Amino acid sequence: RSALVIGGIVAAAALVGSTAASAAPGRPGEPRYGAGADGAGDPYFPLAGNGGIDVLHYDLDLDYTPPAPAPAPLEGQLSGVATIELVATQDLDRFNLDLRGLTASSVVVGSKSMSFTQTGDELIITPRPKLKTGQSTTVTVAYGGTTTRPTDIEGALYGWVTTRDGAMVVSEPDGSSTWFPVSDHPTDKATYSFGITVPAGRTAVANGLLVGSETADGKTTWTWDAPDPMAAYLATATVGDFRLEQYTAANGTPIIDAIDSTRSANQVAALARTSDMISFFEERYGPYPFVSYGAIVDNDSVGYALETQTRSFFSGSAGESTVAHELAHQWMGNHVSPGRWADIWLNEGWATYSAWIWLEERGVSTAQARFQAVMNRPATSSTWNTVVADPGPLGLFGTPVYDRGAATLHALRVKVGDTAFFGIAQEWVARFGGGTATTADFIALAEEISGQDLASFFDVWVSQPPKPTVW
Ligand code: ARG
Ligand code: ZN
Q1: 269: Cβ–Cβ under 8 A, 6 or more apart, which residues?
Q2: Which parts of the sequence belong to the Aminopeptidase N-like N-terminal domain (predicted)?
Q3: Residue 79 CB-half CA count within 13 A
Q4: Atom in ligand 1 nearest the alpha carbon of residue 326
Q5: What residues flank ion ligand 2 with Cβ within 5 A?
Q6: Other CB atoms within 10 Å distance of the CB of residue 69
Q7: Per-residue pLDDT tens for 425-455?
């Protein structure tokens, strides 16, 4: 009896959020059904992701009508059927998916229609029969609505961003729920397939490989397959007036670029260096981790680029430093993803540093000079007033995360030497690729590979605000 009570307390304490399980008492070995938590437990975005489920695959069938020409409102119409394969990680009488600004019209679990509700940005599903721990099932959600131009916690455009000729779909950190029902946290990676139906003449670009396109009755369905595990924020289904350019990189990776028809040769010139960049980063970080690569260059802008997995997104034009940055993210951020959003410096620091070393390779500037430029910033700079390993949800994409993150890596390289530094980079990708890792994992690995005690080094570089004076 007391063991049961303790078991109950442990089970409840493991859940995070306001819908923690109220498991009914039962005999040992019997299911103890409860509700999955309404979030994955990330303090920056408490309701992002969901407890009690592990999604394995999303099959997204989308039908999208972009806005009519101005002066019609800048609003699209999206309807979708998401077929989601998942496994229960606890005995569930209820679980959530994230869905924001769209309305579900039916939910089927297995082959039976289920009752469901939507509260805020949570889609709450009550499966019957209930799900036992380890049980896999398929959840099919039909949904839809009017698409607008969602913004993140900082006010930046993200998610399904409606444009006159389609949509820009870039969802970091928690914007995937604006276009499909999702367990929206990097710790729940899954594979994806897409069928995206758009007016004939428009192109829909998603992750992975193009399976084909079929046109009937004035509509074209674009089918894409993304078999590499992917964090939800890296999924895209960007729609526009694109031409596709396909070729094979020197390492054999199929490249598919989607270039908006209005882009000039100059605006996309740096993409010609993609193959060389892949080879350069492979030498340093290990094999390119995915089935394909390529860029989307849209005529519209969200104000930033995003490393959408296998198909980086660029707003308006693709400059060389940014092209290198987004490519490097495929290893650093996409294959190895942050365990918590507080670990974002491991994404942005590595991607920024990667652009530094690429520009050094090209003879533009040295990494040492870029490091020195950061160190020359005055003590009053935000660079020296931020804990980069915990920048807060409003500081995720701030300058300190990028530049002090990169400077931290350069200082580490100076401290441990090139062999250990690139050994750390390769082992980081090899050991944690396909999943997630945290700052603590990085520090432990750096100590393991270098054989040095790096506790105070990382303390002053990533855990304390002031400018480090020694490294
Ligand atoms: N990870 C992107 C990059 O550095 C930036 C994403 C910014 N996202 C946002 N919601 N503001 O390439
Ligand atoms: Zn980045």
Answers
A1: none
A2: 57-234
A3: 4
A4: 12
A5: 348, 351
A6: 8
A7: 999 999 999 999 999 999 999 999 999 999 9
Beta bridge partners of 194: 60, 224
Instruction: Give the integer Cα–Cα distance in Å for 188 and 470.
Output: 38
Quote the ligand 1 centre to 227 CA distance (angstroms). 24
Secondary structure letter of residue 463 according to DSSP: I
- Amino acid at the residue 318: A
* Residue pLDDT, tens place only, 32-84: 999 999 999 999 999 999 999 999 999 999 999 999 999 999 999 999 999 99
Q: Which candidate, 286, 363, 369, 361, places its Cα nearest to that of 328?
A: 286
Measure Cα distances from 335 to 173, 176, 186, 420 in Å. Answer: 16, 18, 11, 21
Ligand nearest the Cα atom of residue 153: 1
What DSSP state is assigned to residue 273? G
Q: What is the pLDDT of residue 25?
A: 53
Dig out the tokens for 380 from the structure: 């009053």
ipTM of the complex as predicted: 0.98
Pairing status of strand 190-199 against strand 219-230: antiparallel
Q: Report angle CA 158, 169, 48 to the nearest 5 degrees.
A: 55
46 and 39 Cβ atoms separated by less than 8 Å: yes
Q: Measured from the CB, is residue 306 less than 6 Å from ligand 1?
A: yes
